[in-house]
Design a protein that fits this description.
The chain has 169 residues and is mainly alpha-helical. The chain is built from five helices and four strands. The longest helix is centred in the middle third of the chain and has 28 residues. Bound molecules: zinc ion (2 copies).
Length: 169
């Protein structure tokens, strides 16, 4: 995730003036402070203090805000994925999952709509966890699906509200 963010951002810096080329006031070449690594983790460039970032990573305030936004968004997504993974391992989910399969007679509800009788292998959140976390244990938001239907529903949803990995085991 960080790697992708890192690749995304330097392009935004094209028009930005590099502060590290500005002479430090009152300092000659001999008294300049030692170089230190760019403030972006993983960036190999060295910069001269008081500059914090290398040329590629020097942004306007607006660009810094954009950077924060991207990092925060990735972090939120990561946290949501972790939360979903933990949920699918919980005893409450395992119990509910069995109850939904029994309610649906162990048949895929999507196939059934098309008069096809197919054994269900997974239980699906109709409104995905990422959209309605509070409905994770709501039986009316759950249905039994076969593998192919589950995959079809998932790829439909990935166009809009994205669902992370570790959906239904
Ligand atoms: Zn850098
Ligand atoms: Zn099906």
């Amino acid at each position: 995730m960080r790697a992708r963010t890192h690749l995304l951002l330097p392009r935004m810096a094209v028009a930005v003036r590099p502060p590290l080329r500005r002479p430090i006031r009152g300092a000659g070449v001999m008294t300049m402070r030692p170089m230190r690594p760019c403030g972006i983790p993983g960036c190999p460039e060295l910069v001269r203090p008081p500059a914090v970032y290398c040329l590629a990573h020097t942004w306007t305030d607006e660009q810094r805000r954009e950077y924060r936004r991207i990092v925060d968004r990735d972090y939120d997504r990561h946290r949501r994925d972790q939360r979903a993974r933990a949920f699918y391992k919980s005893a409450a989910w395992e119990r509910l999952r069995r109850a939904v399969l029994a309610r649906d007679n162990y048949l895929c509800q999507r196939c059934l709509e098309h008069q096809r009788i197919t054994p269900a292998t997974t239980v699906d959140h109709i409104v995905p966890l990422s959209v309605a976390w509070e409905r994770r244990l709501d039986m009316s938001n759950l249905r039994s699906l076969c593998g192919p239907c589950h995959n079809a529903v998932r790829s439909e949803q990935e166009g809009g509200g994205r669902q992370g990995p570790g959906r239904d085991p």
